[in-house]
Amino acid sequence: MELIKTSLRNMLETNRKASYIFFIDIIYQIAKRMCYLHDMHIAHCDLKLDNILVNIEEKKVVNKFIEHAIVKVINFGISKIEVSSNPKTIENNHIYGTNVFSFAMVYFKILFKRDPFDDCRRDEILERIERDERPKLPSNCDELTKLIKECWNLNPLHRPKFAKNYERLIIASSTTNSIK
Description:
Layout (H helix, E strand, L loop, with lengths): L5 E2 H7 L5 H20 L2 E2 L8 E10 L2 E10 L6 E2 L7 H24 L9 H9 L11 H10 L10 H14 L5
Helix pairs in contact: 2-3, 2-6, 3-5, 5-6
């Protein structure tokens, strides 16, 4: 069994100096893993920082060492299997939509180094979500913040599927390579 050194939560708390591209790659890998699960008709149902493990490796590239993360999604204890084979399609989209919403919260935390609802009490979070209130997003990375907004749409049926998130992250990361 592979030894993974840290959770994404611990990595974010201790590794604040990593590059923007390093973090975009982590988001990309999470989307890729979730896309695979959905292709296999599995809804994770508990995507959060503690259920994402990260190994950081250093690689030498042209006389310079760069860090690269390897991401694993764990804890399938409350996952749903054979989701798409269930005839209740709307409910299936809702289950997958919940994963996409959770992805947006993780995505926000990675990019902006803070919890999405850190300005309110825990018992207020659900009320704010139901009122369609979301944290303010910076305007300096339009495509990425647009994707977050779509992923945390109040209606699960209007959230993009992970395959679409994955494609858009590829495009967004290639157009934002100069952002640090």
